[in-house]
Amino acid sequence: MPLQSQIFQYYYQAITLGECVAGDMLPSIRMLAGKLQIARITVVLAYEKLISGGFIKSRPGIGYQVIFDRPIEMALQEIPYSIGPEPTGLIAAEVPGDLYNQPTAELYCRMSIPDPNAFPWSSWRKWNNAPSYLKEQLATRYHSPQGLLSLRQEIVRYLRLSRAINTRPENIIITNGTQEGLSLLTQLFVLNQARINLSRCHIVAESPCYSGAWHSFNYYGAQVTAVDVDEQGICVSRMPECSTQLCYVTPSHQYPLGSKLSLSRRKKLLLWAQRVGAYIIEDDYDAVFSWEEKPLPALKSMDSCDRVIYAGTFSKTLGPGIRLGYLICPDSILESVQSMKALNNSGSNWLFQQFLAEFMHNQVFYTHLSKLSCVYEERQRLLHEGLLRLFPEGKIWGHAAGLHLTLITPLSVEFIQTLRQRCLRAGVRFDTLNEMANGSESLWQQMNNQSVILFGFGSLNLQQLQKVLTVIEQEMNSLRAEGASINAVA
């Protein structure tokens, strides 16, 4: 350790331990330097560090005096014990742990995870390193909880081009990802229903449903009705004809089954919302990556009665680490959602918001999306063709859009689970609906007796996906050679 640091540490410990108290004088620079036979500048630097730390001060003509007072140690007073009620216990919310757990296999076909190289590092470094008064203000001041106007304006333009949605910057609220948007809306509607009508908020959700939404609805005390999903999306004909406050759907790429809500059902869903007085939360998390020439319009673009709350995210296009999403709120609830956002956290990362606004404004964002789409489409095609070859008896859902494919197969649950364990030992992991279970899937499983396997491909390159398919094929052949039962589910 350098002599300067040794001197600092010696007096730092002496002062903080009470060996030197406020008012004591330290040796002069000349005296200490002579005693230790070192250069005076070494002592000067050590003393300056003690001064900057608030431990001593220089008194001209007198010397260096200790000014640091140790905190007064209060004697612990024994608090008399009295009998009373225990503090109220808290119920922990369930969370979608499948998103946060670390990978357990070398090659994991994990859902909801984009390419590790999806984040535009070069653009970020260039922007971050450039000096800017605006960035200083964004980092050191509070700004609108609703989000920066510059980003909301770019989102308006982006949605008009990509999803045929016409909205205004005033109706957009920037959130910390889709999950915060869902939490804000759930809190708002549950509290409002309890205060005004003294009843539970009724929410309709898909079966199976995204864990983050399902757990939020149940934790905040809503009455949740699950409606099953098929190849055309949520079965609107089975939705309850009773007073309902919210309906949560993922129409572009159902999570987790991957089906797409048909145009006729989209129209029926909007009519249903008008009949029962409900708002629809349209979670459009995966729509940006569409593999069809003419993708269906967003529900929000068809909404003439202002019933749809649109939820979007940048987690798939840039990365979940930036924690930026957004809500498009109808005028009737806009002020309430703005207030709830302000109460929750005062706003989302303003620095990232400004970077993203400039990234989109300069058109670099659209080039970035185009490149990502080409990469993902190639991976999707490889995986799609490989799964059809390996599982000719099955059906592939979700090939129209998104970053995962769903295999619906009549192979027995036992065979699929054995295959999964064999693949895990070989360094390859895929999940079934059982691993994604959160309670919402119960209805779907009662009405469908087939096995479900989920394959995310966003985070794996072509070589890795080919290895995944090879391992699955090898393990399937081994199981069949061993005479494993592959009987269809009864």
UniProtKB/TrEMBL annotation:
GO molecular function, one term: DNA binding
InterPro entries, A to Z: Aminotransferase_I/II_large, HTH_trans_reg/aminotransferase, PyrdxlP-dep_Trfase, PyrdxlP-dep_Trfase_major, Tscrpt_reg_HTH_GntR, WH-like_DNA-bd_sf, WH_DNA-bd_sf
Domain HTH gntR-type, chain residue ranges per copy: 1-69
Entry keyword set: DNA-binding, Pyridoxal phosphate, Transcription, Transcription regulation
Presence of keyword Transcription regulation: yes
SUPFAM superfamilies: PLP-dependent transferases, Winged helix' DNA-binding domain
Pfam families found in the cross-reference section: Aminotran_1_2, GntR
Annotated transmembrane regions: none
PROSITE patterns named in the record: HTH_GNTR (PS50949)
Family statement drawn from the similarity comment of this UniProt entry: In the C-terminal section; belongs to the class-I pyridoxal-phosphate-dependent aminotransferase family.
Protein name (record): Transcriptional regulator
